[in-house]
Specification:
The protein has 7 helices and 9 strands; from the N terminus they run ββαααβαββαβαββαβ. By secondary structure, it is α+β, with helices and mostly antiparallel strands. A hairpin with a 3-residue loop joins strand 1 and strand 2.
Length: 201
C-alpha cells in the first residue's frame, strides 16, 4: 500500500518498516519452512515469485504490509541491514468494500527465537491504531499461539470453518477499547522512512 511506503513506526519492542525488495530474500527463506506455510496457509513460491508478490503488496491499495524488526537489535546496530533485524511481518487488509471500517489483520513472527516475547502483540496493536473500528483475524485451527494473542487483545471468536480449517476472531472497537488501544500505543513514534527504500515496482 502506498499509504505506508514512507513511514517507519518505532515501538518499544518492534520497528515496523514498509516491505521492500531488500527484505524479500530473508522473507523467502522463512517461507521455505513447512511449519510457517502451514500456520499462514501459504503456498511455496520461488524467489522470483516472492519479488512479484512483494511488488503486488506494495501496489495494492487494499493492503498495508510492514516488516517487523526487533527494535533492540535495530537500535543497537544502526547502519546494519534491516534484513539482519527482521523477525516477521504484519498486514492489514481492507476486505469489505461496503464497510471501509473493517480490516483483516494478521501477524507472523517467523523467527522462532523471537516468539513469545510480545513482538507480535505490539505489532498488532500498532496496526490496530491505524484508525479502523472493526478487525478480523482468520487463524488456522491448529495455531493456538496466534489465537491466544488475539484473544488477549479482546478479539472474540465469531466463526469456525471446517472447510478452510480456520477460526475467525473479531473485535469491534468501543470507546473504552479505543482508549485502551491509545494507552497501549502512546509510546509509538511515527518517523519518515529512508528515501528511496520503497522503490517503485
Amino acid at each position: 500500500m502506498r499509504l505506508n511506503q514512507n513511514i517507519l513506526l518505532l515501538g518499544k519492542k518492534v520497528v515496523l518498516v514498509p516491505y521492500t525488495p531488500e527484505h524479500v530474500p530473508r522473507y523467502h527463506e522463512w517461507m521455505k519452512s513447512e511449519e510457517l506455510r502451514r500456520l499462514t496457509a501459504s503456498e511455496p513460491l520461488t524467489l522470483e515469485q516472492e519479488y512479484v508478490m512483494q511488488c503486488s503488496w506494495q501496489e495494492d491499495a487494499d493492503k498495508c504490509t510492514f516488516i517487523v524488526l526487533d527494535a533492540e537489535k535495530w537500535q543497537a546496530q544502526l547502519g546494519t541491514s534491516e534484513e539482519s533485524c527482521m523477525v516477521g511481518d504484519v498486514n492489514l487488509f481492507l476486505t469489505d468494500l461496503g464497510d471501509p471500517t473493517l480490516g483483516e489483520i494478521e501477524v507472523m513472527i517467523a523467527e522462532p527465537s523471537c516468539r513469545g516475547q510480545g513482538l507480535g502483540t505490539e505489532a498488532v496493536l500498532v496496526m490496530m491504531s491505524y484508525g479502523l473500528t472493526k478487525f478480523e483475524a482468520k487463524i488456522g485451527q491448529g495455531n493456538e499461539p496466534s489465537m491466544q494473542l488475539f484473544r488477549k487483545l479482546h478479539f472474540e471468536q465469531v466463526a469456525v470453518s471446517s472447510v478452510f480449517q480456520e477460526v475467525t476472531l473479531r473485535l469491534t472497537m468501543s470507546e473504552r477499547e479505543r482508549q485502551w488501544l491509545l494507552e497501549q500505543t502512546s509510546h509509538v513514534e511515527e518517523k519518515p522512512y529512508r528515501a528511496g527504500a520503497s522503490e517503485r515496482c
